[in-house]
Design brief:
Number of domains: 2
Number of helices: 3
Structural class: alpha+beta
CATH class of the largest domain: Few Secondary Structures
Largest sheet: 3 strands, antiparallel
CATH superfamily of the largest domain: IHF-like DNA-binding proteins
Strand content: 25-35%
CATH architecture of the largest domain: Irregular
Order of helices and strands: HHEEEEEH
Shape: elongated
Distance between the termini: 19 Å
């Protein structure tokens, strides 16, 4: 689902105009970003019955260039992970 589709569904479900739905969606996404930025020590941001966003670290490792087969070094990095709550899993039939 694209962001535009998501906004459309929020507008229909909430009986809102598309502009109001877009502002609401942008606010929610912005708050998730702000929550992650504020929780740098923990690296976690939990939203009640929705799930938990967490920043995890990847160690440096060796990989291969797919074109040449040459071994390359891949730098350490951070990535964002999402772990759904049990209620969200149940709603999705997982």
């Amino acid at each position: 689902m694209s962001k535009a589709d998501f906004i459309e569904r929020v507008a229909v479900a909430g009986d809102l105009s598309k502009a109001e739905a877009k502002r609401a969606v942008e606010l929610v996404f912005g708050e998730i970003e702000a929550g992650l930025a504020a929780s740098k020590k923990e690296g976690k941001y939990t939203i009640g019955t929705f799930g938990t966003f967490a920043v995890s670290k990847r160690k440096a490792r060796k990989g291969r260039n797919p074109r040449t087969g040459e071994e390359i070094k891949i730098k350490a990095s951070k990535t964002l992970r999402f772990r759904p709550s049990s209620q969200l899993k149940a709603a999705a039939g997982c």
